[in-house]
Write a structure and sequence with these properties.
Helix content: 40-55%
Number of helices: 8
Radius of gyration: 17 Å
Structural class: alpha/beta
Largest sheet: 4 strands, mixed
Strand order of the largest sheet: 1-2-5-6
Oligomer: single chain
Distance between the termini: 11 Å
Order of helices and strands: HEHEEHHEHHEEHH
Number of strands: 6
């Protein structure tokens, strides 16, 4: 990526997140295969807690990576994006996991889910838009005090839990413990 950034002026690492990122308040450091607990179950609630943790961790990782890249003077940018409430195959797997298809369909209809194509716009903006900011998120919603997830893509400032020093340190340490040094 450094070579690509030097050739073109920048390169980007984009992490996929979700509005579910706001539910966790801290990083859970568990090996789910060796230390089962309530988050390691196969029921819908446990699956959702794992989903929330991964989306939270994706934001944390992108913020940490952005800080470390900036500190070394890199032209590589790191950011995250979420699709908003979009009618995608995630709902199909939710129904397969035991959520009532009728209940989910009604929820999506009442909340006005957007198409999966519209949901892809945050990630596409991160990929292709000129003058994109690094270290923050992009996705629909969060305009005019409304916090729902559809409509035009906006810049999204990181929530307090994502910029929390303890959470960032835990995320980076856990990441390097699992995959080795990143930079």
């Amino acid at each position: 990526l450094e070579a690509a950034a030097n050739r073109s002026g920048n390169a980007r690492v984009i992490m996929h997140s979700s509005q579910s990122r706001i539910r966790p308040s801290e990083v859970v450091e568990k090996n789910y295969t060796q230390n089962p607990g309530d988050i390691a179950g196969n029921d819908f609630g446990s699956r959702m807690r794992r989903y929330e943790q991964t989306k939270f961790a994706n934001c944390l990782f992108s913020v940490c990576l952005d800080e470390k890249l900036k500190a070394k003077g890199s032209k590589v940018q790191a950011m995250w994006a979420h699709p908003g409430l979009s009618a995608t195959n995630l709902q199909v797997t939710s129904v397969a996991a035991g959520v009532s298809g009728c209940m989910l369909s009604m929820f999506l209809t009442l909340m006005g889910a957007q198409s999966k194509e519209d949901g892809s716009m945050g990630i596409l903006k991160c990929c292709a838009a000129p003058n994109i900011k690094s270290g923050i998120g992009y996705g629909p919603g969060f305009t005019g005090g409304k916090k729902w997830n559809k409509g035009p893509v906006n810049e999204i400032e990181n929530e307090a839990t994502i910029v929390d020093a303890k959470n960032k340190e835990r995320c980076w340490t856990f990441t390097e413990k699992i995959i080795g040094p990143v930079l």
